[in-house]
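Run log, item B.
One chain of 107 residues. Sequence copied directly from the ordering sheet:
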Amino acid sequence: MEIPRKLKDYIDSNRLPLPPIKDEDEPLQIDSLAIVRLVAFLETDLGIRIEDEELIAENFATLRRLGELIAAKTPTGPTAEAKPSVQEGIPTFSAKRETDRSGVPEQ
């Protein structure tokens, strides 16, 4: 199990004033808000989707446990790359306002 360097750096920088983690079995010592931020980082920066049922403290207790969670989600093979998940069914909205032919915004 290989922890991505970017992830290790993120965790170390967000645990301050605690020292960087040197042992994979050392407790991360992060609170629930830090876990939410970590999940956002995993999903947006590394393309690793964390499901609701995976949001349990044990999965975020140590680097080893986090690495096991990531390994279970990451495709294996020499060309495997993490890709952001596509969120189907989530509507997107534009801030552009429609105007009628007279140039007056519609109500």
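Observations after the first pass:
- Helices lie at 5-13, 32-45, 63-73.
- DSSP finds three helices and no strands in the chain.
Flagged for discussion on Thursday.
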